[in-house]
Design a protein that fits this description.
mainly alpha; globular
C-alpha cells in the first residue's frame, strides 16, 4: 500500500477525517474511472445535478 499526501481546503478536523475516508473508498478505482469522475467534477452541469436533491435523485433512479 502506498501513501499519498493530499491538500484540502478543509480546516475542521472532522471534515478532514470524513474526506480522507471518502477518498480511501475511491482509491481502488482504475485511473480511467477516476479520470471520468474528474471530468464530471469539471462540468458545471454535472456538479449542479449532483449538488441538488432532485438532480441526485434523478441520477440514483437512472443508475441504481
Amino acid at each position: 500500500m502506498n501513501v499519498m499526501n493530499i491538500k484540502t481546503k478543509e480546516t475542521n478536523p472532522f471534515a478532514v477525517q470524513k474526506k480522507a475516508k471518502l477518498l480511501e473508498a475511491l482509491a481502488d478505482l482504475d485511473n480511467e474511472i477516476l479520470e471520468k469522475l474528474v471530468a464530471l467534477k469539471k462540468s458545471p452541469k454535472a456538479m449542479s445535478m449532483v449538488s441538488s436533491k432532485e438532480g441526485w435523485q434523478t441520477i440514483q433512479d437512472f443508475i441504481m
